[in-house]
Amino acid sequence: MGATLLFWGWQTGFWIWAVPMALVLEASRYLPYRWDWTPRDFYRLSDFSALLLMGMVAFRFIAGTESMARWLPIGLFPLLCGQCYSNVGGVDRGALFYTARKKEKEGRFRRRRTMDVSYLYLACVIIAASAANQRTPAFYAGMTVLVGWALGYRRPPARRWPFLLVFVPVAFIGFGASIGLHNLQVWLETDVIQWMTDRQQETRNPFRSMTAIGEIGELKLHDRILLRVKPIGAFRAGQLLHEASFNRYRNGLWIAGQARFEPLSPAGSRNRGTWNLEKPPSERGFVSEITMKLRDGKGVLSLPLGCYQIRSLPAKKLERNPYGAFRVSAFSPFVSYRARYHPSVRLQAEPNDNDLDLPTSEREVVMAQLKARNWRGGSPKEAVEFVRSFFRSGFTYSLKQEPPRKGLTPLAHFLQVSHSGHCEFFATATVLMLRGAGIPARYATGYAVSEYSRLEKAFVVRSRHAHAWALAYLDGSWVPVDTTPSIWLEAEQEQTGVLTPVVDLFRWAGNRFDIWRHHQRFGGGSRGWLLLLALSGGIVLLWRVLRKRASRKQQTRTVSETVDEATHPVSPFTAVQESLIDAGYTKNRWEPPGEWIARLSRSGLGPDLADDLQFVVRQHYRVCFHPKGLSDDELQQMKIQCRSVQESLAGIQQKTKG
Predict the structure, then answer these.
(1) How many whole angstroms separate alpha carbon 249 and alpha carbon 214?
(2) Which residues is 327 bridged to in the sheet?
(3) Strand partners, 337
(4) Facing residues of 334 across strands?
(5) Nearest to 71, CA basis, from 151, 136, 16, 25
């Protein structure tokens, strides 16, 4: 067990705990001293371990620390330590199972029942070591040696070699299987999960965006609330929140070429959370407070167009790429920040060759549309207005798509035949037509802020509010060009379920809980309230314990006074008990006299002797616990009966010696 604890300390880095714990357990092999633990003592050890584990889980939940699975050996250590230093060699089952504890307290077990918890503890230690997630061959090798050692230790020496001949090949096969499972996990995490995430648009990928262009049937969107936006001051409904931009298009996939992220430096302390993105404009900007939940504390921020400063964002790291995407690594999975913005601020880098690129598969149809509408060139602003007017005439918004005609790409079918599609069709076609007109353009993704919640007193942004639009480079800055018909928000609002308001109520409650849990976590007041709450609970608990002890002392005093007033004599059963022990009838320390006599009666005492003993025990209980005790005649009869029992026991003892 000591080697297993050292292995756990090596994997998790908890040497300061592992070494003393291993020494304490291994010392039990050499120290001759043992405690005479009663079942009640093991119950207390078990309760202490349970409280320790509950405290660790509460600390993990409130403080948001790393997984507490690696701390399991500490929580269960008192129970194993009690087993190693007891004279029982195990732990009472009542310490592990409440039903068994209840039966033991009621005296329904004829003998004491214990079980060895060392193997259970060994399994918990290995699980805790695996929670460190080292993923190295050394971990598997160490775990294999420890498991083989534990399983082979209990086998007779003659059977250990056959066991090893079977165990070693199985271990090598398991190692190969673990590598295969790890590779499968990596594939699922990198490809399948990313593909599903891009499809559902719940988390943006700043490097690529897989659109729903080409999908057949109705596009289903989710009602899940992703963001909450609380405007401070003036605000225009329908405002766009930008997450990422892309400049290369291939078969329904937008890619951000050369989108390397560069770290930003905070304006002050990271815990204060002030980050300057651009130089503030001369005019006064606008402010919106945005709350969102990140996966594992990492993600891409949603920011209003023209954001130049972020406040109240305690983050470990904030990075930006040339296309206006901001990637954050926060201290907490729940973040709330204030974004200052102004339309005159532009965050994206100057255009490059990719911003004028027309894919070969779409070039012909784009140029044909420009020629059919008699585009003969003009200024950049005229080109933007020409594209806007193009999509205002005859194009409609729809979430349902039909199969494209043979020989046409989905985008060509949209431009030439159906003239109906969702925002990804409009944004992609707008970008390509602007490029065909000679205007650098990019594809942008984010969300539209339009649904106000009176309950939350803020705008809520759902998964179905995800939006795409074009960015055109005009007069030295990137200007949003959204050609999707404004009816798209109403069309998606129709997908709202009947139970959405009820579900939103639970979502609001969960959001308020997250705010309470993470609010001002670094330097805020929530910890003070938690400390005050814990202190109040501790005072109440201490008062109840002291009150209960005072009550017990009063009851004890009352009983002792009653007994003293009655002046009961010492019970004659004491001499009978000594005679029974001398005759070889052992008594367990935890066994009451009544249960002891009942057990002896079942084990083969003569019927006359058993009846006499049961009578004496009943009288003994009256002497000890009845307020009035026994009368003089009853006490004299009990003494006579006790002498008779002692004589019978003396005769049995002589026959045994003879």
Answers:
(1) 14
(2) 300, 319
(3) 290
(4) 293
(5) 16
Q: What is the pLDDT of residues 433-479, one digit of tens each?
A: 999 999 999 999 999 888 888 888 888 888 888 889 999 999 888 99
Query: CA-CA-CA-CA torsion for 300, 306, 308, 311, nearest 10 degrees?
Result: -60
Structure-block tokens of residue 180 = 């295969």
Give DSSP secondary structure letters for 330-364: ESSSEEEEEEEE-TT---SPPP-GGGG---HHHHH
Residue 235 is which amino acid?
F
User: 301-323: per-residue pLDDT in tens?
Assistant: 989 888 989 988 878 889 998 88
Q: Yes or no: say if 477 and 265 are a contact pair by the CB < 8 Å rule.
A: no
Give the SS3 label for residue 323. Answer: coil
pTM, two decimal places? 0.53
Residue range 615-626, pLDDT digits in tens: 888 888 888 877
Element (H, E) at 480: strand 477-481
Side chain identity at 560, as an amino acid letter? S
**Spatial separation of the C-alpha atoms in residues 9 and 17, rounded to whole Å:** 7
- Determine contact, residues 486/395, Cβ cutoff 8 Å: no
User: Which tokens go with 395?
Assistant: 């194009």
Q: What DSSP letter does each residue of 42-65 carry, written as one string?
A: HHHHHHHHHHHHHHHHHHHHHH--
Q: What is the DSSP letter of 373?
A: T
Helix (H, G, I), strand (E, B) or coil at 258: coil
Q: Measured in whole angstroms, how far is the alpha carbon of residue 156 from the centre of its chain?
A: 43
